[in-house]
Amino acid sequence: MTSLNPTFSDSVSRLPPAHAGAGDAADDRKIQTPEAVRQELHEWHAQQAEAEMRNGKLRQIRAELDAERAHQEMLSRFLRHSPIYAFIKTVTPAESRVLQASDNYQQMLGLPGSEMTGKTMAELFPPDLAAKITADDWAVIARGEMLEREEEFNGRVYTSLKFPIALGEQTLLAGYTIDITGRKQAETALQNSESRYRELFELAVDGILTGSHDGVILDANRSFCDLLGLSREELIGKTIFDLPFTRESLEKAPMCFDLLRQGQIVASERTLVHVDGAEIVIEMRTKMMPDGTYQSIYRDVTERKRTEKD
Fold this sequence. Notes:
Blueprint: H1 8-13, H2 22-29, H3 34-81, E1 85-91, E2 96-101, H4 105-109, H5 121-124, H6 127-143, E3 147-153, E4 156-167, E5 170-179, H7 181-203, E6 207-211, E7 217-220, H8 222-228, H9 232-235, H10 247-252, H11 257-261, E8 266-273, E9 279-288, E10 294-300, H12 302-309
Antiparallel strand pairs: 1-2, 1-5, 3-4, 4-5, 6-7, 6-10, 8-9, 9-10
């Protein structure tokens, strides 16, 4: 059984070795007190907390840099693949300089957006157009308002929409340009077509009347006005039922809007009364148009009918 009282051998075993030097004896004398240990632990925890804070800040900075790189990559891809001309510029009263631009400017200017960076409008466009673009760009920045402009360049027509964007204390100009040459050509062709139709409409020997789906008169040519002795202004806004048809002719050939809605061409013979009281026999051919309006052609057959009777 082990004795609870320390033996001499135990005491001797606790003594420092005979060869121990002064330094070892000094180490034994540096045994820390509980207070010192607590202080050391406190300092260690503080250092750990500070290190964790630094690591957290580093992670935050790294995340922000990753997000910034992702945004830059997204913008880069947008500018590389954009189907419309897009741009960002720095602008002063004297010059407008490209900061970024889409690569499809190759089609307009012969160089991609990546090669436009840093160039002024004077370096990219003819002098007059460059001066106009620069003035418009500065107006956007100075007024802080969006601006839309239509411009011609190298035989093509473009529309540009420009607007200011704030970046810190600096205001940049951003916008996009669309080639509307095809649309303009289509508009011109439509105007020419409408002009030719109007000429045919007015010069036609037969009377022509157009109306809405519910029978309101929208237009009448000169020949139709002559049939009744009324002006175009007197006819527009009235309905087909206001026209001076004789009762007998309407009873024989009533209006057939249901057939028109089915897409049929309705032919009929009716009698109109001129403002001077003369009766005019007309052949009518009416068709509902794709837009829901109708068009009627009135041919005066009074003389032919009189000849047939004779």
